[in-house]
Amino acid sequence: MSSGRSLVEPIRDDLTTKMVLLAGPRQVGKATLGDQLLAADSSGAYFNWDNRDDRRDIRAAHWPGGGGLVVLDELHKWRGWKRWLKGEFDKHRRTTRFLVTGSARMDVFRHGGDSLQGRYHHYRLHPFSLAEMESARRRTIEPGAPLQIGRGDRSALDALLAFSGFPEPLLAGAVRTHRRWQKDRLDRVFREDVRDLEAVRDLAAIENLAEMLPSRVGSLLSLNALREDLEVSHRAVTHWIDVLDRLYHVFRVRPFEGRKVRSLRRMPKAYLWDWTLVPDPGARFENLVASHLLKFTHYLRDTDGHDVDLHYLRDRAGHEVDFLVTHGGRPWFAVEVKLADTNIDPAIHYFQQRLKIPFVFQVVRDGTRDFVEGTVRCLPAEQFLTALC
Questions:
Q1: Is the distance from CB of 131 to CB of 385 less than 8 angstroms?
Q2: Can you give the pTM of this predicted structure?
Q3: Whole-number Å distance between alpha carbons of 62 and 60
Q4: Strand ranges inside the chain, DSSP E
């Protein structure tokens, strides 16, 4: 397994001209990535807002200077961080480079009046994917072009399904370590991150919501159904889902709206950043593929600015395909996920014909055959996932 991360090289390049904001779920490896960058910088320094001494040094702006890299971890927990950082960057941009990391969606803060826009590049660090386990080198991918599919490693896929893509449990490869790590991580997300960053009065209720989500992975996310189960207002459950999204606990995939199909609108599907929270084998596998595709689209957006998005396909007649990746709002490739079935799902042909999707795949978890039927390629999951980042 590669010990590096594929974002190290593009982040290092961007730090020469701008600051970098790096966000991602708790314990995904942001601090380790910062350490990798600092290892090549003898004049650099690391500061964590959660540490009292570091908070004092941050407020006093005790920077190393000499072109050194300053890594500021969890800075977004400071209410005035954005305005302060803007001033520090403008003052020291010729002598100091800034990498700001955090476990909340720092990109959503840019919509305020004192925006950092134009001064930074934003990246999202994901759990390890199958392709990243094999190589941390930066990949060149041309949106709209055929995917470069390799052979893949079945044992690596098994490890990801069992232990997640988060570094600690994945590297340990032990059930006991994974179980203890998962409990500790969830406790910290709900007892610390939600409390510190969000205006949520009822922590028990948002934990109850989080406990309901694994059984709803891959299904349409009905806020009304959640509201009834939790016995709260629609406004409350909407806010709580947004909170879990901002804290990288859940992500939503929205339907593709095409003129040539009577598409469902608005209602998303929900998936978890830690797919090992999903007990059902089929839903967990679908969540893993969704996470890989989301990472793929984020990578192309964050490193090269490509306009790529992840959707699902479903129309009012009930035809459905699990995922569609678009480029510039146009279909690029579609993916249907199966545990073992190698019979091509008719919905793939249905949408491919109406939307003129250039590339379509049926990805099978327990299959070994790689074949093409008409315009659809059916192949094992470990092969398909090598094409992603």
A1: yes
A2: 0.95
A3: 6
A4: 19-23, 45-48, 68-73, 96-102, 120-124, 250-255, 269-272, 308-314, 320-327, 330-338, 359-364, 371-373, 376-380
Domain 8-124 has CATH 3.40.50.300: yes
**What tokens appear for 236 in the block?**
């409350």
Cβ neighbours of residue 290 closer than 8 Å, sequence gap 6 or more:
251, 253, 271, 310, 322, 323
Exposed (0-12), middle (13-18) or buried (19+): which is 172, by Cβ within 10 Å?
A: middle
How many Å apart are CA 220 and CA 222, to the nearest integer?
Answer: 6
| Average of per-residue pLDDT across 349-376 | 95
| Amino acid 3: pLDDT | 59
pLDDT at 100 over 60: yes
Question: What is the pLDDT averaged over residues 38-51?
Answer: 90
Name the percent of the chain lying above pLDDT 90: 77
Other CB atoms within a 10 A radius of the CB of residue 219 amount to 11
Pairing of strands 250-255, 269-272: antiparallel
Are 119 and 89 a contacting pair, CB within 8 Å? yes
Q: Tens of pLDDT along 134-157? A: 887 777 899 999 999 999 999 999
- CB–CB of 337/323 below 8 Å? yes
Mean pLDDT, the chain, integer: 91
**Distances from the Cα of 309 to the Cα of 6, 242, 300, 330, 381, angstroms:** 20, 19, 10, 10, 21
Q: In whole angstroms, how far apart are CA 187 and each of 240, 248, 299?
A: 17, 14, 29
Query: How is the chain split into domains, by residue range?
Result: 8-124, 130-387
DSSP per-residue codes, 239-267: HHHHHHHHTTSEEEEEEP--TTTTB--S-
d(CA 31, CA 55): 17
Neighbours of 264 (CB within 10 A): 18
